[in-house]
Specification:
By secondary structure, the chain is an alpha+beta fold. The protein has three domains: 4-60, no CATH class; 65-165, Tetrahydropterin Synthase, Chain A, CATH 3.30.479; 224-297, no CATH class. It has helices at residues 4-20, 95-100, 105-122, 126-131, 133-148, 167-246, 252-265, 268-271, 276-297; strands at 21-24, 28-34, 37-42, 45-48, 54-61, 65-68, 72-75, 81-92, 153-164. The strands form three sheets. Strands 6, 7, 8 and 9 form a four-stranded antiparallel sheet that branches. It has a three-stranded antiparallel sheet with strand order 3-2-5. Helix 3 (105-122) packs across helix 5 (133-148), helix 6 (167-246) runs antiparallel to helix 7 (252-265) and helix 7 runs antiparallel to helix 9. The radius of gyration is 59 Å and the shape is elongated. It starts with a helix and ends with a helix.
Length: 298
């Protein structure tokens, strides 16, 4: 039985040695102290520590982390109190500074974020606060990143999540928005009516122009018809007179042809278009021809 004690001692030594071998996961960092003093920072991989003398005091994640802070009251430049909450994204770039730089780093970031947010919004009025989130986010990020460098923390992004004005301010904004929408509606309606009136007037104008053009074309065509008819009558009149002038008293056949031409000229439809002086000449000529014919017949 004398071998039992050495076996137990050996097992204890093996267990202690195994516990001294530590494996650090990826994206983690462990802070190691030796006799209460900072010794080194273990990165990802396998490491060995001296029992009793060395110990791991802090296990730190190097991943980007998110801190969502509760809403807090802030006062704008125009004395409007509202509740604002923010979200902070950060990474630890120096585990040693993070472990020894500040007590409760997350609480420190929250308080620093609150005071910075109050300072920034306190210099802005309500309208600028509601519409200037990008500017607020950028200013908070810059201020927090500078302040947290000694703590081994890098602020990558800050987002103002919600801005909640008082109920009275919200109701006033709703009334203002409603009035603005009604104003835009009235403007659009008046613009529509204006365009409709303009289009209607343009249509009436174009219709009147077309009607006037049609009347003009009709009058032109009627005038052209009357002119052509007048020219035709004048041409017939001239032909009849020429035939009568050329006829000899002894030539009965030619006289008859002239008489027939005169009868055509003196027709009812064309009589009104013959010049009065020509009618007198034609009447005298017709009488002469009739006397000539009656004398020849006897």
């Amino acid at each position: 039985m004398g071998w039992v004690i050495p076996v137990i001692i050996l097992a204890i030594i093996v267990i202690v040695l195994l516990r001294c071998v530590r494996i650090v996961p990826q994206a983690d960092a462990w802070v190691l102290e030796r006799l209460g003093r900072y010794q080194k920072t273990w990165e990802a991989g396998i490491h060995f520590r001296i029992p009793i003398i060395e110990r791991v005091v802090r296990k730190i994640s190097l991943k980007e982390q998110v801190a969502d802070f509760e809403p807090q009251p802030v006062i704008t430049k125009d004395n409007v109190t509202m509740m604002v909450d923010s979200v902070v994204f950060f990474k630890i770039f120096d585990p040693r500074l993070f472990a020894y730089g500040v007590e409760r780093p997350i609480a420190a970031i929250e308080n620093l974020s609150a005071t910075t947010l109050r300072n920034i919004i306190g210099s802005m009025d309500l309208d600028s606060t509601l519409t200037g989130r990008e500017a607020i986010n950028g200013e908070i990020t810059k201020t927090l990143d500078e302040a947290t460098d000694p703590w081994g923390i890098r602020i990558t992004r800050v987002e103002v999540k919600n801005i909640a004005p008082p109920r009275s301010i919200t109701e006033a904004m709703e009334r203002q928005m409603k009035a603005e929408r009604e104003k835009r509606e009235a403007i659009l309606r008046s613009e529509g009516e204006k365009q409709a009136a303009i289009l209607s007037a343009q249509g009436e104008k174009e219709a009147a122009i077309l009607r006037a053009e049609a009347v003009k074309q009709k009058m032109i065509r009627e005038a052209e018809g009357e002119a052509q008819a007048l020219l035709a009558v004048q041409q017939a009149n001239a032909d009849a007179i020429r035939l009568l002038n050329e006829a000899m008293p002894s030539d009965k056949v030619l006289a008859l042809k002239s008489l027939e031409a005169l009868e055509k000229v003196a027709d009812g439809k064309a009589t009104k278009l013959i010049i009065p002086s020509n009618l007198q000449n034609l009447a005298g000529t017709v009488a002469s021809i009739q006397e000539l014919l009656s004398g020849s017949g006897s």
